[in-house]
Specification:
Pdz3 Domain; 2-enoyl-CoA Hydratase, Chain A, domain 1
Length: 426
């Protein structure tokens, strides 16, 4: 009886050693050659990687699992997400990014027009996080954040080399909670800590009105006294998101009808200030309101340097209206496409619109968004866009025809809007 028990124990030990040997050798072969096996779930390596040696990657992974002192930190999904984020970050393009589920949801919520946070569109510059534009009446705007501000820290953590999605995930949070940002204003040498209470941010992408000159509170009536009974139309675009086209159509139909019947309306002001952009198709749609079918809105240039035109494909309502476009350093991407299209295209030798304000942000690339499953997403820069005249605004921005800066000492007066009104009255 004892001999049989001993034999059984020996057999079990031998079987265990053989299983361990075979298992570890199979894993090592799989790691070295990165050939999908039972341990690699739901993913075949691309054909282009057939000869790639992933041994260092898997060697590091294995050593972390074996040697790292705090095993609770070894979350395989987080480690995989970090590896993919590093893969996209290696390109040095802030707009090509991997979005884990939470960050991908945050991005989509922003385009849908409602989320919980501080209400500021962010970008990157010189490997630092920068405020492209605070949203109107948002906690960020009330706290004094301005376009061009650098965000150096979030709750005491340095943002150097942070990705945009990661930064957004750190700044957003439940309504009523707070986040402290270390802000460096453009004309300051000393950072300022700003505590901001998060709130529900609802972004209505399009608003508009028609007013008599004397009813516009934010402009000085002194220089417009002889025109106080004249009227101007005004449309503000906050972003190019999920509801933009429908919101635009509803407002522009009403304003267009009134402009046809009321001769006191001298023209239309399109306000793209602090508009961070959004969908390329929306930029073409909005531009099509003012440019005839077939007119180029922008040029798209692929990785081989081949260009094709993005033209107007629908009939608009305002081919003859006088237009002034307001821009500033918070105007980016789709905002710049619309501005460039209306500036470059001419009717009777004159630009379709006059640009008033400040030089725009300068984002001249196009991204493709792909859902990867399980809530994750990938944004990939697939092309450049250029204005109809072939100008690439990336990094440089669009310069206005008439540069006008706001008076920081008198924020109740909108000198840019005032200049736009004057241009319509001339």
């Amino acid at each position: 009886m004892k001999i049989k028990s001993l034999q059984l124990i020996v057999i079990i030990l031998i079987a265990g050693l053989i299983g361990y040997y075979v298992g570890t050798n199979n894993v090592k072969v799989s790691w070295k050659n990165f050939k999908p096996s039972a341990s690699v779930i739901n993913k075949e390596a691309p054909a282009s990687l057939s000869n790639a040696d992933f041994s260092i990657f898997w060697n590091v992974w294995g050593k972390l699992e074996t040697n790292y002192y705090d095993k609770t930190k070894l979350d395989p999904q987080k480690m995989l997400n970090g590896a993919i984020e590093g893969l996209t970050a290696s390109l040095g393009d802030p707009y090509t990014m991997y979005l884990p589920p939470v960050q991908n949801t945050n991005f989509k919520d922003g385009l849908a027009g409602q989320f919980s946070g501080i209400g500021a569109e962010l970008g990157t510059k010189e490997k630092q996080i920068i405020v492209i534009a605070p949203l109107a009446s948002s906690p960020a705007e009330r706290a004094g954040l301005k376009a061009g501000d650098f965000i150096l820290k979030v709750d005491g953590e340095s943002t150097l080399d942070w990705t945009l999605p990661f930064t957004v995930s750190k700044i957003r949070g439940p309504k009523g909670t707070s986040v402290t940002l270390s802000i460096l204003h453009k004309d300051s040498s000393k950072p300022l800590d700003v505590k901001i209470i998060r709130d529900t941010i609802t972004v209505k992408s399009v608003t508009g009105w028609i007013k008599q000159i004397k009813e516009i509170e934010s402009i000085s009536n002194k220089s417009l006294k002889d025109h106080e009974n004249d009227k101007v139309a005004y449309i503000k675009l906050s972003q190019f998101g999920d509801s933009t086209n429908n919101d635009w159509t509803a407002i522009v139909n009403d304003i267009s009808l009134k402009m046809q019947t009321d001769k006191a309306i001298k023209g239309l002001i399109i306000d793209l200030r602090n508009n961070p952009g959004g969908y390329l198709a929306d930029a073409v749609y909005i531009s099509s309101e003012f440019l005839k079918q077939g007119t180029p809105v922008a040029l798209e240039e692929n990785s081989q340097g081949q260009r094709h035109t993005l033209p107007v494909k629908r009939k608009g309502l305002m081919y003859d209206a006088q237009i002034v476009v307001l821009i500033n350093k918070g105007s980016a991407s789709a905002s710049e496409i619309v501005s460039g299209a209306l500036r470059d295209n001419k009717v009777n030798g004159k630009s379709r619109a006059i640009l008033v304000g400040e030089t725009t942000f300068g984002k001249g690339t196009i991204q493709q968004a792909d859902d990867l499953g399980n809530g994750a997403g990938l944004h990939t820069t697939i092309a450049k866009w250029l204005t109809p005249n072939g100008i690439w605004v990336n990094g440089a921005g669009l310069k206005p025809d008439m540069e006008v800066k706001l008076d920081e000492k008198d924020l109740s007066r909108d000198s840019q809007l005032e200049k736009a009104v004057l241009e319509l009255l001339e």
